[in-house]
Amino acid sequence: MRLLCFFSTFLYLFLIQSSTASAAAGLNQWIEGRAKVSSVRVVSEWDRIATNTAEIRFGLEFKMKPGWHTYWKNPGTVGNPPKMKWQLPDGWQSSDIVFPAPTRIPYAPTKDSSIKSESFGYERNVMYPTSLTRTDRPW
């Protein structure tokens, strides 16, 4: 989740910079998480944003190392779904993230439990589409 907060700051700077110049320098670059088991990047069709832009659509793409995963909005018997907390400039709001169809992630019984469990989520890569919308449209 701290990685997502980093991207909130990144997008904030992207929005501020974009009113006068290109902000493509940080887009599409993989940023490794603190635990070094996943990386994330912002994927967008735009390399700059005009001052009269009303909506910005983009995706947050996560890449996990083998054996690691992230969860779906309804993770099943274990885990928590990802949440994003944005720190946006005044006049902008974020949409909910869109969760692609998940896969089942089975868990074998452990020595402490004979119960099999499963969760729902993503292994390897997943792209979470989302958007930012301008609410103070002066035009």
List keywords for this structure.
139 residues, disordered N terminus, 5-stranded antiparallel sheet, 3-stranded antiparallel sheet, mainly beta
Report on this model:
The chain is built from 1 helix and 8 strands. The radius of gyration is 18 Å and the shape is elongated. The termini are far apart. The chain has one helix at residues 2-18; strands at residues 31-32, 38-44, 55-64, 69-76, 92-94, 103-107, 117-123, 125-134. With 139 residues, the protein is mainly β. The longest helix is centred in the first third of the chain and has 17 residues, at 2-18.
Task: Summarize this structure briefly.
This protein has 139 residues and is mostly beta strands. The protein has one helix spanning 2-18, and strands spanning 31-32, 38-44, 55-64, 69-76, 92-94, 103-107, 117-123, 125-134.
The beta-strand count equals 8
Low-confidence stretches: 1-26
Question: By helix and strand content, what is the structural category?
Answer: mainly beta
H/I helix tally? 1
Widest beta sheet: strand line-up: 1-2-3-8-5
Helix and strand sequence: HEEEEEEEE
Approximate helicity band: 10-25%
Tell me, rounded to a whole number, the average pLDDT: 75
Strand content: 35-45%
Straight-line distance between termini:
36 Å
Radius of gyration: 18 Å
Largest sheet: 5 strands, antiparallel
Shape estimate: elongated
